[in-house]
TrEMBL record:
<feature type="binding site" description="axial binding residue">
    <location>
        <position position="384"/>
    </location>
    <ligand>
        <name>heme</name>
    </ligand>
</feature>
<protein>
    <submittedName>
        <fullName>Cytochrome</fullName>
    </submittedName>
</protein>
<keyword id="KW-0349">Heme</keyword>
<dbReference type="Pfam" id="PF00067">
    <property type="entry name" value="p450"/>
</dbReference>
<keyword id="KW-0479">Metal-binding</keyword>
<dbReference type="InterPro" id="IPR001128">
    <property type="entry name" value="Cyt_P450"/>
</dbReference>
<keyword id="KW-0408">Iron</keyword>
<dbReference type="GO" id="GO:0004497">
    <property type="term" value="F:monooxygenase activity"/>
</dbReference>
<dbReference type="GO" id="GO:0020037">
    <property type="term" value="F:heme binding"/>
</dbReference>
<dbReference type="InterPro" id="IPR036396">
    <property type="entry name" value="Cyt_P450_sf"/>
</dbReference>
<keyword id="KW-0560">Oxidoreductase</keyword>
<dbReference type="GO" id="GO:0016705">
    <property type="term" value="F:oxidoreductase activity, acting on paired donors, with incorporation or reduction of molecular oxygen"/>
</dbReference>
<dbReference type="InterPro" id="IPR050121">
    <property type="entry name" value="Cytochrome_P450_monoxygenase"/>
</dbReference>
<dbReference type="GO" id="GO:0005506">
    <property type="term" value="F:iron ion binding"/>
</dbReference>
<dbReference type="InterPro" id="IPR002401">
    <property type="entry name" value="Cyt_P450_E_grp-I"/>
</dbReference>
Length: 388
């Protein structure tokens, strides 16, 4: 049998290609495409009423370029300055920088993390999941390790071992991949060996099984269906804790040191407070002592990470199947909302002279209230469990 449709298709295709070859047809097609885009954007685009630069409705190229350059922060800051607290920055993304709006989104599971989080680290874990009950149960399981008793319990080990550094996501960047892949492998082995050593230690009686730390919580926990956590789950959650905790802490300390070098008068005050409170230089200062007796130092850390939070770009959430009203602007359903923590941390409604470095804002009872407003550890239902 002759393959009539395929012959027809070939002939038709040739005619179409010939037609396209004539520049007039191409020009007409481009015009139709352009006009339909403009008509869609003017009358149908669900985000047409969200303020923003005109091109944001048509292309994400400028945003993607800034993303590649690692400069989203200043770019988004500039757009918010020009267009207000809710800005469209690409055809699908709306950025939000008002503290009240960011709090509204973060305070509930109604606006879930975007799906793009799901593959960030190994298999599903507390950070990557978009599932409310999964996240709730993991947070509950690990909670006791972050209580005051839990933290005091592991302080001795931290004092002995120090903190290791990790950069698990950067291995996707091609140029530095080889070195970082090596480091990720070191972390994999570290987590694997730690789990094995803990099990053996408990079996031999060398380690108490009542130990209150992150690893023990996951080893002992049960899932809502009554089953123990699988090897894969224990590995993924423990690896996450290592990755999320180490670099966030290192970056926050770097931000603090950076600010101290920029403001020598603050540095001097911090030194004086520490030296006058702890006169014995050989004594190691414990976490609880620092918290209770070094208010200016603690305030300096809060102020440094207010201005330089570890999340420099946007944290993604979905506007849910209902949509949400932010600063009086309707953000329709199923839109990606980028939460700009750095902007919310400088909201003039919350902070006097938000751009200035002033640790004293975090002193006294008012300062304590302000600490709860920071977005440096995220906020609401997905707030950082390691923030203490
Ligand atoms: C100064 C230190 C830290 C800072 C500034 C910090 C900041 C943050 C921020 C901003 C988030 C939200 C990220 C997002 O939603 O995209 C987060 C989440 C998280 N952090 Fe931290 N963090 C710190 C230390 C730690 C430590 C020490 C641990 C654990 C040992 C930890 C474990 C986590 C986990 C598991 C999440 C995910 C929570 C969830 O999605 O429910 N962090 N952290």
């Amino acid at each position: 049998m002759t393959d009539i449709p395929s012959i027809m298709n070939k002939e038709k295709l040739l005619v179409v290609l010939k037609e396209l070859g004539s520049s007039r047809t191409l020009y007409t097609l481009l015009c139709i495409y352009g006009v339909s885009k403009v008509l869609y954007h003017t009358f149908l685009d669900p985000l047409r009423n969200v303020p923003g630069p005109w091109w944001a409705g048509f292309t994400s190229l400028p945003y993607s370029i800034k993303k590649l350059q690692g400069d989203i922060s200043s770019y988004v800051k500039d757009l918010h300055k020009r267009y207000g607290p809710v800005v469209r920055i690409s055809p699908e993304v709306v950025s939000v920088d008002g503290a009240a709006d960011v709090r509204k989104i973060m305070s509930t599971y109604r606006y879930p993390k975007s799906q793009s989080f799901e593959d960030v680290l190994l298999s599903e874990n507390m950070f990557s999941t978009t599932n409310e009950s999964y996240n709730r149960s993991r947070r509950k399981q690990v909670g006791p390790a972050f209580s005051h008793t839990g933290l005091a319990n592991i302080e001795e080990d931290v004092m002995k071992s120090g903190i290791i550094s990790a950069a698990p996501i950067l291995h996707r960047v091609p140029f530095i991949m080889v070195q970082l892949r090596k480091e990720t492998n070191i972390m994999f082995s570290f987590v694997h060996d730690s789990i094995k050593a803990r099990r053996e230690g408990i079996k031999s009686g060398e380690i108490s099984k009542d130990r209150l730390d992150v690893l023990q919580m996951f080893l002992d926990s049960t899932n809502p269906d009554g089953s123990k956590l699988s090897e894969k789950e224990i590995f993924s959650e423990t690896f996450l804790m290592l990755a999320a905790g180490t670099d966030a802490t290192a970056m926050s300390l770097t931000a603090t040191m950076h600010m101290l070098t920029l403001y020598p008068e603050v540095f001097e005050k911090v030194c004086n407070e520490i030296r006058s409170t702890f006169t014995d230089r050989s004594q190691l200062i414990r976490y609880s002592e620092a918290k209770d007796k070094l208010p200016y130092f603690v305030a300096t850390v809060y102020e440094s990470i207010r201005l330089l939070p570890i999340v420099g770009g946007l944290v993604s959430r979905d506007s849910s199947s209902e949509g949400v009203v932010l600063s009086g602007i309707v953000v329709p359903k199923n839109v990606k909302i980028g939460l700009y923590f750095e902007g919310a941390n400088r909201d003039p409604e919350l902070y006097k002279s938000p751009e200035s470095f002033d640790p004293s804002r975090y002193l006294g009872p008012e300062g304590d209230l302000l600490k709860k407003e920071t977005f440096s550890f995220s906020h609401g239902v997905r707030i950082c469990p390691g923030r203490k």
